[in-house]
Protein: Fibrillin 8
Organism: Solanum tuberosum
Amino acid sequence: MISAGFSSALCVRPVVSFSNTIRGVHNHGRVTCLATSMSSSSMTVARDAEYELESRKYELLNIIPDTQRGLVTTADQRSTIEEAMVVVEGFDAGKEIDLSKLDGTWRLQYTSAPDVLILFESAARLPFFQVGQIFQKFECQNESRGGLVRNVIKWSVPRLLEENEGATLIVTARFSCVSARNIYLKFEEIGLQNINISDDLQAVIAPAILPRSFLSLQILQFIQTFKAQIPVTSPERQSVGGLYYLSYLDKNMLLGRAVGGGGVFIFTRAHALIC
């Protein structure tokens, strides 16, 4: 005989519907599939955006090779370059400067800055002057609001120094972040170093047919290790400075604009040791 207590217990036990169980499993599956679909869709959108960005960067870099880094441009070319820059800049608009990305060496590919173009113009007109690669080297890896930047210019005098790499001019400046995208440069000194004399000049100093004397070796060593540094600041003179707008920055491209109509700059990452 079943006791009354046990019978009452049987009466109040909740009944689990098989159909409800199946429905719950089905709904869980739908949620899982929906989440997976949304994740896949997000990844696709991100991939498409990255592909679009890289395509726009490639188009920009593909426009500038014939301009000789900005020396030889027409009004149409400058307009096309400006439009392509604006498109790339739009992918990075509103983001704060990432100093960890900025840190490192950048090679100049194009500029419209008059103070740089005058170097290219001088090299084009003067047979005894060459301008090689130009770099900006930022040192700000462990900084939060600024750092050091070195403008590195490779130049040469034909027959006296090695071609394009005869000597290195370095303009050093401190920079500070004054807004999300603007940095202020305060120039400190100009330096000359890494002088590599040509074989012709070495032959004049120490002819190959004769043993090199102690004096000639000393002269060669002095020239090759010569380093001059000229400060551009003093207690009586205020440092020259400038405002610089970083309009786009990622791991391999840097776009900048000198505030006040000083021109635009297009840099790509340089992986070799410069100085």
In short: Residues 48-93 form one domain. The mean pLDDT is 79.
